[in-house]
Design brief:
The protein is built from two helices and no strands. It is mainly α and about 90 residues long.
């Protein structure tokens, strides 16, 4: 977001836009918003990294469990799907 402020530092009068909000107030608001957005982006990236690490740990745990208990993670399909074993079913 780029805002051009027409009020110079030498004059004390601040120009107001159609909504009556002074431009240096807007500038301050946008500066604050940029800071907020930047900090939130950092938080999101940190959270995503933590989630990815947790997911990797969970996947490793699941893989270890699969070695011990394969029948829990690979259930046998229902009988209706096993048509190849019964060729008489049309």
């Amino acid at each position: 977001l780029s805002l051009s402020s027409s009020s110079s530092s030498s004059t004390t009068t601040t120009t107001t836009n159609s909504t009556g909000v002074t431009q240096n107030l807007l500038q301050r608001y946008f500066d604050d918003m940029q800071r907020v957005v930047a900090s939130r982006l950092e938080q999101q990236q940190q959270q995503q990294q933590q989630q990815q690490q947790q997911q990797q740990q969970q996947q490793q745990q699941q893989q270890q469990q699969q070695v011990h208990h394969p029948q829990l993670f690979f259930p046998s399909p229902p009988q209706s799907l096993n048509t190849s074993r019964n060729p008489t079913i049309t």
